[in-house]
Amino acid sequence: MKVDLLQMVEYGGCSAKISPKQLEEILKYLPLPRDPNILVDIDTHDDAGVYKVNDDLALVLTTDFFPPVCSDPYEFGQIAAANSISDVYAMGGDPVLALNIMMFPAAKLPMEAYADILKGGFDKATEAGVRIIGGHTINDFPPKYGLAVVGYVHPEKVITNAGAKPGDSLILTKPIGTGVILAGHRLGMVSDDDLTEAKRLMKLLNKSGAEVMKKHNIRGATDITGFGLAGHALKMARASRVSLVIKMKDVLFIGNSYHLIDDGCIPGASFRNLEYAEKDIDFASDLDYNLKMLAFDAQTSGGLLFSAPPEKVKNILEDLKNAGLSESREIGLAIPFEGKFLYL
Ligand code: CO
Ligand code: CO
Ligand code: CO
User: Fold this and answer.
1) Does residue 115 share a domain with residue 56?
2) Whole domain around residue 327: which residue ranges?
3) 229, 344 in Cβ contact below 8 A?
4) Does 86 score more than 90 pLDDT?
5) Which tens digits make up the pLDDT trace of 24-35?
6) What is the mean pLDDT of residues 258-265?
7) What is the DSSP code (8-state) at residue 39?
8) Is 70 a catalytic residue?
9) 163 falls within a domain
10) Total of domains in the chain
11) CA of 41 to the centre of ligand 1 (A)
């Protein structure tokens, strides 16, 4: 039996996250633990928590899991693992250990599909140098998979949402549009080439991008996932207390995603992301609808967005290219706070 995981879900990948607005509602009831060794907590909406063990070592802790973004179980496992591990890279950490998190409808799918998802996750984790040493499974529909990941970072070398400084340039390491491409694929409107490219990008680890960030002592970064480029940039601007200016015309998109917006290929998550963020954003009068909706497109396993001193940008882009990330682009800059956190 050929398994098609997409038959089982309405929203897959990071598009299935609850809305940022609901998340804020829930989190306000959650007390924050106090401990001087907690270096990064939920307060800055960072990609992962960071806990100092001693003067030379801090732990980076994160978890992500979601419903299928593609038909093939093995590829789904690879994408889910790359996405989970990415939050450690976004914090400047080296991922080391992981646990599988798996929800699987045992009566609805053959066991081979279950094994293939785990194999995809294992292979991607191995590529990242991560050892999966356990996990937990629940019988549940639709299937969901991801990892809880632990990484190491030097306590003084943590990269956070709060590290962008006025004058910094913004660099994005992967094209965006996975949400649009996946929505279009469901409607039968996406070419095989565009789908293959979206899957390649989702499987691509942010490892090499993170190595370039570390080489250049970058202090401000996040990865682009469910809240879209604009949503994650907004979190970075707020945490850094700066305004970010993003030039959507300089952002690269996957394949035909710009035109797919005209055909209505806009996942519901984009509208939720827009609704949450728009009060903090100034939209340029010449920003067209397609660029605007792409800014809010929920990415699954998207690239790194980081801030860097402008004089380093040329060398950084060169290093990213040599690391296989030739689609990295300078897409904007950080300025002193000017009334809105984000200018698009
Ligand atoms: Co993240
Ligand atoms: Co995450
Ligand atoms: Co971060």
Assistant:
1) yes
2) 169-343
3) no
4) yes
5) 888 888 888 899
6) 95
7) E
8) no
9) no
10) 2
11) 13
pLDDT at 7: 87
Using DSSP, state whether 312 is helix, strand or coil. helix
Is pLDDT at 9 greater than 90 in this prediction? no
The CB-based long-range contact list for 30-37 (8 Å cut-off, 24+ gap) reads: none
pLDDT in tens, 194-208: 999 999 999 999 999
Residue 77 CA to ligand 2 center (angstroms) comes to 16
Do 259 and 233 have their domain in common?
Answer: yes
Residue 106: predicted pLDDT: 86
Strands of 154-241, DSSP E: 169-172, 220-223
Residues in the chain: 344
For residue 46, the ligand closest to its alpha carbon is 3
Instruction: Identify the CA nearest to 159 among candidates 306, 310, 295.
Output: 306
* CATH code: domain of residue 104: 3.30.1330.10
CA of 333 to the centre of ligand 3 (A): 17
pLDDT of the residue at 23: 86
One-letter amino acid of 195: L
Q: Which residue shows structure tokens 């250049």?
A: 216
Phi and psi for 108 in degrees, rounded to 5?
-100, -15
Residue 12 pLDDT > 80, yes or no?
no
**Considering the domain boundaries, does residue 164 fall inside one?**
no
